[in-house]
Design brief:
GO terms for molecular function: ubiquitin protein ligase activity. Helix content is 4%, strand content 29%. With 110 residues, it is mainly beta.
C-alpha cells in the first residue's frame, strides 16, 4: 500500500498464459539405497529434487519441461524472478501507532 493509506485492501491478480510455457512436470522417479547414489542421477540439463527418507533410502524425482503449464512465483522479494510481490501492513492491517515503521512482509508466502 502507498505510504499513508493504511486501509485493508483485497488484492486481485490476473494470470494470463505466458508466451512460452515455463512449467515443469515429473518425468522419472529413482529410489536409491544411499544418499551418495543420488549424485550419479543429477544432470546439468535437467531439474531434480532429492528426498532423503532414511539412511538407506533416497528418492530422486527428475522434472522435464511442460508445454501446457505456466508457473508464477509469489513472494516477498522485489527481485525480477518474483511475478507478484506480497506485503502486509503493520499489525495485520490495524492502524500503526508509529508511522515510521515500514510494513512487514508476509513470510508464509515466501
Amino acid at each position: 500500500l502507498p505510504s499513508g493509506d493504511r486501509g485493508r485492501r483485497k488484492s486481485r491478480f490476473a494470470l494470463y498464459r505466458r508466451a512460452k510455457a515455463n512449467g515443469v512436470k515429473p518425468s522419472a522417479v529413482h529410489i536409491l539405497n544411499t544418499p551418495q547414489d543420488s549424485k550419479a542421477i543429477h544432470s546439468r540439463g535437467q531439474h531434480s529434487i532429492s528426498f532423503t527418507l532414511s539412511r538407506n533410502q533416497t528418492v530422486v524425482v527428475e522434472y522435464c519441461h511442460d508445454n501446457n503449464t505456466d508457473m508464477f512465483q509469489i513472494g516477498r522479494s522485489t527481485e525480477s524472478p518474483i511475478d507478484f510481490v506480497v506485503t502486509d501492513t503493520s499489525g495485520g492491517g490495524k492502524e500503526c501507532e508509529d508511522p515510521s515503521i515500514a510494513p512487514s512482509t508476509i513470510s508464509r508466502f515466501a
